[in-house]
Amino acid sequence: MRNRADACCSLFPLFKERKAMTKTAGFPREAVSPLLYWYDSEARDLPWRREPTPYRIWISEIMLQQTRVSAVIPYYLRFLERFPDPSALSRAEEDALRKAWEGLGYYSRVRNLQRAARILVDSYGGELPADRDELIRLPGIGPYTAGAIASIAFGLPEPAVDGNVLRLYARVTADSSDLSAPKVRSRITEDLRGLYRDYPEDASRLTQSLMELGAVVCLPNGTPLCGNCPMRPFCRGCREGNPSRYPSRKEKKERRKEEKTILVLRSQGRIALRKRPESGLLAGLWELPAEDGVLSPEQITDRVRNMGGVLSGPPVCCGEATHVFTHVEWHMTGWAADLAVPCPDLTFADPAEIRERYCIPSAFQPFLNGKARG
Predict the structure, then answer these.
(1) What mean pLDDT do residues 311-338 have?
(2) Residues with active-site annotation
(3) Model's pTM, two decimal places?
(4) Do residues 308 and 353 make contact, with C-beta atoms less than 8 angstroms apart?
(5) Using 50, 70 and 90 to split pLDDT, how confident is the model at 186?
(6) What sign does the CA torsion over 229, 234, 240, 245 have?
């Protein structure tokens, strides 16, 4: 029995193209109708697709940066319940907003969301502008996100070119260019923009179909599912017999490794927290006090004394953990100790308060939940 892709492609002669088909070095125009047909029948049921308002598309696209769809969905639903529009987002208390984002990582995204929401309230009547150039001026909105909001929410003929779309484009066109090069991205974006002009009434579906195909069929890791692809008859990479060779890959730089000593300091059943600086990695978030390097028990005792506290006994090792950021890798050793005299500049909270109020990055969670390696 033929699969959906075969059925989709067999219908190709029935589609009446709006423009005469032409062979170009770019994206094959004759593939658009089968692609849209496939999307209409196979697209995943995602919450932001059920009600694609500009605000909802914006929130979903920011959350989906560097984060899997399955992980985003519960956050998205809770976030919209608490902050249903730009006005509510602009008024959110900082710690409450970060707590709502806890676990998604890349916290600069939520800081930029609130900065942009305040601009929308002050300058745009609390609504996102239906203009790509205006959107791209807002904090945290780059060319891809602006294109996604413009096309999906407003139906404007603007492409949204992310990693999924670039990979799909490279395979379909057998393009071995370096996709990280700005000139290459600009060339691909302009080629796709011409596609949108040919199908102006399908801008929203076109953007989402390209994203969807790249996400669930033309896979980033492993073998692409060419047998399920409506673009198989038009794909140069598939005709060559090895679509996985595209796009060309540059060697990634090795992450910098840093040693950290994590302090779990307790006073009367409460745990010591410290706010990180407002710039740099994990800016403005709460942490278990983290010290650079691998400290001995004697050094930890001295550090606590320098913070104005006194330990009631020697610190005890409570495990090790590793956390990987984009460009740096933390190798952490945790030490737990009770305080006879609390450190005056630290904040102390009981476990329930930490769960409900304080946003603690996932790097520190193994030492809070006892899951650090023993």
Answers:
(1) 95
(2) 61
(3) 0.83
(4) no
(5) very high
(6) negative
Q: How many CB atoms lie within 10 A of CB 216?
A: 15
* Inter-helix orientation angle 69-82/54-64, to 10°: 140
235 near 172, Cβ under 8 Å?
Answer: yes
Q: Which amino acid is at 342?
A: P
Q: What is the pLDDT of residues 358-372, one digit of tens each?
A: 999 999 999 998 888
CATH number of the domain at 273, please: 3.90.79.10
**Same-domain status, 261 and 364:** yes
CA distance 154 to 148: 9
The pair of three-digit structure tokens given for residue 287, joined into one six-digit string: 């942490």
Collapsed DSSP state (helix, strand, coil) of residue 25 = coil
Whether 137 and 202 share a structural domain? yes
Q: Are residues 211 and 285 in the same domain?
A: no
Residue closest to 154 by CA, chosen among 203, 86, 209, 189 = 203
**Nearest one of 187, 317, 220 to 263, comparing CA atoms:** 317
Tell me the two tokens of residue 348: 């102390």
- For the stretch 64-101, pLDDT in tens is 998 899 999 999 999 999 999 999 999 999 989 999 99
- CA–CA separation, 160 and 154 (whole Å): 13
Tokens, residue 113: 């969301």
- The CATH number of whichever domain residue 13 belongs to comes to 1.10.340.30
Please state, in angstroms and rounded to a whole number, the distance separating the CA atoms of residues 71 and 76: 9
Q: For residue range 95-123, list pLDDT tens digits in order.
A: 899 999 998 988 999 999 999 999 999 99
